[in-house]
Amino acid sequence: MNRLVLALVALFAAAPALAQEKLTVAECSAGGCRCALSSLTMQEAEVVLGTPAPAGTTTLVRYDGTYIWSPLSLTEIDLAAGGDGECPLELFDALVPEDGQWIGTVTDRHVSQCPPGLDAALEPVTEAMVFPRDIAWGGSFHPDRIRMEGTARAIDWTRLSDTRFTGTGPAASEAGMSSMVRIGVTYEAELIDPRLVRILVQLSVRAEGASQAVIDAAGLGHCDVRVTVDLARSGG
After folding, report:
1. What is the full DSSP assignment across the chain?
2. Do 75 and 105 share a structural domain?
3. What is the DSSP string of 200-211?
4. Residue where a domain stops, chosen among 66, 93, 120
5. Is the dihedral angle over the CA atoms 96, 102, 104, 105 positive or is it negative?
6. How far apart, in whole angstroms, are the C-alpha atoms of residue 145 and residue 232?
7. Can you give the residue range of the structural domain that contains 77?
8. Which DSSP string corresponds to 157-175?
9. Domain count, the chain
10. Where does the record locate the signal sequence feature (predicted)?
């Protein structure tokens, strides 16, 4: 296994890739690879992975959960993985999350123009995502399946693609004699990998009133809290 990883790492180069080509993915393990034409473009894969593809790259290799850009042919990649050099190209390999136990981790938190401690308002939302749960995805990705069984549906999800959804949670507003406060929660959920889902939760507070300067000084005029949760498949 170490020899394979070192061999694949040695294939790296450092230059921009052609952007709009469909991506070829080689899913490799000890003994060979399975090759498919992804529905993602190389540009989309660069954005998702956060890594630019080297010049001359034609394939993204996945081995043991690690992605490596490679300029080699599919035959050469399969041989490097210990296969027989035969890796027929399948069409549009669907990204499907793995069934099993998943657990969430808060990986980023950003507070902008808010009064101290307001980010704690998102704690109940994020806490609902960070403890382990068994998920049966049913062969496709939908973030509503992350919800614990028996709990009420609180997010309205909109599908953007097979791997990406946006959602809105309950909103609240309150009007006084001279002010209006609106509070809302939005979500973005994306399947990054069969073993990784990334969820962005954003709480927004907007307040308007006759004493706008006082409202802004209190940190309630344009307050945003963003929390990123990575939900990962645990175990083998």
Report:
1. -HHHHHHHHTT---SPPPSSSEEEEEEEETTEEEEEEEEEEHHHHHHHHT-PPPTT--EEEEETTEEEEE-S-HHHHHHHTTS-S--PEEEEE---PPPEEEEEEEEEEEEES--TTGGGGGHHHHHHHHS-EEE--TTS--GGGGSPTTSPP--EEEEEETTEEEEE---EEEE-SSEEEEEEEEEEEEEEETTEEEEEEEEEEEEEETTHHHHHHTT-SEEEEEEEEEEEE---
2. no
3. EEEEEEEEEETT
4. 93
5. negative
6. 14
7. 2-93
8. EEEEETTEEEEE---EEEE
9. 2
10. 1-19
Please tell me the predicted confidence (pLDDT) of residue 50. 73
pTM over 0.85: no
The CA distance from 107 to 230, in Å, is: 7
Looking up tokens 């399947």, which residue turns up? 191
Last residue of a domain, one of 93, 113, 128: 93
What residues does 173 pair with on adjacent strands? 182
What is the per-residue pLDDT across 162-178, written as a single tens digit (0 to 9) for each? 888 999 987 766 555 55
Higher pLDDT, 150 or 223: 223
| Cα–Cα dist 92/114, whole Å | 44
Q: In 3D, which of 81, 70, 69 has the Cα closest to residue 32?
A: 81
Q: Give the number of other CB atoms < 10 A from CB of residue 159.
A: 12
Q: What is the pLDDT of residue 102?
A: 93
